[in-house]
Write a structure and sequence with these properties.
Layout (H helix, E strand, L loop, with lengths): L11 E6 L5 H16 L3 E4 L5 H11 L4 E5 L13 E4 L7 H6 L3 E5 L3 H12 L4 E4 L16 E2 L3 H19 L2
Parallel strand pairs: 1-2, 1-5, 2-3, 3-4, 5-6, 6-7
Helix pairs in contact: 1-2, 1-5
Length: 173
Amino acid sequence: MKKINKKEDIIKISVIGGSQVDNEIYDLAYEVGKEIARNGAVLVCGGLSGIMEASCRGAREEGGLTVGILPTENENDANKYVDIKIPTGMGYARNVPIIISAHAVIAIDGSCGTLSEIGYALTYNKPVIGLKTWEVRPYYSENTPFIIRAKTAKEAVRIAIKEAKDYIKNHTG
């Protein structure tokens, strides 16, 4: 993992997606986690199974830092690859801090919970990079997608890092 010298250098990327996934999607999330750690960013997620576990596992194996913002009050509900466990007791409402905590969001697969997180990301002007996930467009334009599409884990993280740096430059002191 890249050494972080000052707090301005810390990039946080939220990885969102379903808690039940097939092997292909699990492997994709695992690779995303590895790439996040290789780029020296912190991985933030909901801390449970599926996409969350796979991405945390990948990040942890590359020496990265993982944060799980849990829906329950019990930090023991976190998957075993979460380093920092934040129990909230908020259920799905914990999706808001998952998004607000990040400088960029990578959405992988997912169902309605993931769609709500994408909605929050767009509400809070966070860049969203999508891998095999929802298509979200305004009704008035088929040419203006709200989600930046990526084809591979490496491409998704490369875009997320760039977008996160732009977000930090434009939205922080």
